[in-house]
Design brief:
seven-stranded antiparallel sheet, five-stranded mixed sheet, globular, 1-phosphatidylinositol-5-phosphate 4-kinase activity
């Protein structure tokens, strides 16, 4: 049985040349764990392992102090002798506010070790669609999203982190806001990459068949031709309206969603945030059942070594993990779930369609891109768009109170 995908304190001593006896063990473990070809991703995986192991040795504070919201943990590695194939010769890794994010993970019901396995046991998937600036990664078990952000957004995060933390504590983690779980800086060849880790709005097991990015604005809010030809296009407000799409949920669920939405948008107004979206994913249960039947028919044609190949690629469970495959892994011990079934503790943004709805569907709804403040640049953009489209046009760049009100009205209309 191989060792778990963590960098142990004894392994870390390989960094000191006098402890040569430990180096061999360190190399074996690292080769097994890190297989990412992108040096930034490799350093991220190494850093997550290192930081979670370090944090596990630090007592949880009785209460968070103002200094915890300014703190950071840094490590610089130069000319190391381990895992040269996958890690650059020199790199730096910085974790922002480790105690705060550990506390947030706890409020969101995410165990640190499971977080570590989900992000570092096997390389995350990279978004190759190229429609975004910067890295966009999904953890190999599809429970987490890692998004590259700008240094300005890092400052924005610092400015709202205390209020965000307090809000999450007050609402007991019941929110449509992004579940912010960690923030890092990776430095390779003197270039800084800032990364924000969040829970995935979409499911780790139920396929999304249609998705929308909704702002409640109709000006320039239509998917381009280039977007439409993708396997899973991101449609927008105009597309949503044109297809007469609705979200069919029960009255009870509708009340819960609107209550969360009202509280969350009021918080964003207080933070002077605007330009955020509702990310909506739709899982078609009937289509999923059909796809499952087709997969079962093809099962006999699979190559006999395919399962072994998964092991070879680092996808086998970590033997000492509390949940064998990270955040979603513990579900393997339960009976298999059928089409349209989900665990609300893992798929926290999921809502079942109402009984008697036109289609059996599962909806995934969460707020995204919430770090845009209504600053001078946005005010100028609002003025320019108002001149172009007219003062009454539903443009997306409006002041936070107006944005939140219009956004809530739009979401209320789409809930059947």
């Amino acid at each position: 049985m191989s060792s778990p995908p963590t960098v142990t304190s004894s392994a870390l001593s390989a960094l000191a040349p006098k402890r040569k006896t430990k180096k061999k063990h360190f190399v074996q473990q690292k080769v097994e764990v890190f297989r990412a070809s992108d040096p930034v991703v490799s350093v991220l995986m190494w850093g997550v392992n290192h930081s979670i192991n370090d944090l596990s040795q630090v007592p949880v504070p009785v209460m968070l102090l103002p200094d915890n919201f300014k703190a950071c943990a840094k490590i610089k590695v130069s000319n190391h002798l381990f895992n040269k194939e996958n890690l650059p010769a020199q790199f730096k890794f910085k974790e922002y506010c480790p105690q705060v994010f550990r506390n947030l993970r706890e409020h969101f019901g995410i165990d640190d070790h499971d977080f570590q396995v989900s992000l570092a046991h096997s390389p995350p998937h990279k978004d190759e669609e190229g429609h975004r600036v910067g890295l966009l990664l999904t953890s190999y078990d599809r429970t987490l999203v890692v998004k590259e952000i700008s240094s300005e957004e890092v400052e924005e995060m610092h400015s709202i982190l205390s209020e965000y933390h307090q809000y999450i504590v007050t609402c007991h983690g019941s929110t449509l806001l992004p579940q912010l779980l960690a923030m890092y800086r990776v430095t390779v060849e003197s270039e800084d990459t800032y990364l924000l880790v969040m829970r995935n709005v979409f499911s780790h097991r139920l396929h999304v068949h249609r998705k929308y990015d909704l702002k409640g604005s109709l000006v320039s809010r239509e998917a381009s031709f280039k977007e439409r030809v993708k396997e899973l296009p991101t449609y927008k407000d105009v597309d949503f309206r044109n297809t007469m799409q609705k979200v069919y949920v029960s009255e009870e669920e509708k009340e819960k969603i609107l209550d969360k939405l009202h509280r969350d948008t009021e918080f964003l107004v207080r933070m002077r945030m605007m330009d955020y979206s509702l990310l909506l994913g739709i899982h078609d249960v009937k289509r999923a059942e059909r796809e499952e039947e087709e997969e079962e028919e093809e099962v006999d044609e699979e190559l006999p070594y395919e399962e072994e190949e998964d092991d070879e690629n680092g996808l086998a469970p970590a033997p000492h993990s509390t949940s064998p495959q990270g955040i979603a892994g513990y579900m393997n011990s339960f009976k298999p779930m059928g089409p349209g079934e989900f665990d609300p503790y893992v798929d926290v943004y999921a809502v079942q369609s109402a009984v008697g709805a036109p289609q059996r569907e599962v909806y995934f709804m969460g707020l995204i891109d919430v770090l845009t403040q209504y600053d001078t640049k946005k005010k100028a953009a609002h003025a320019a768009k108002a001149v172009k489209h007219g003062a009454g046009a539903e443009i997306s760049t409006v002041h936070p109170e107006q944005y939140a009100k219009r956004f809530r009205e739009f979401i209320t209309q789409i809930l059947a």
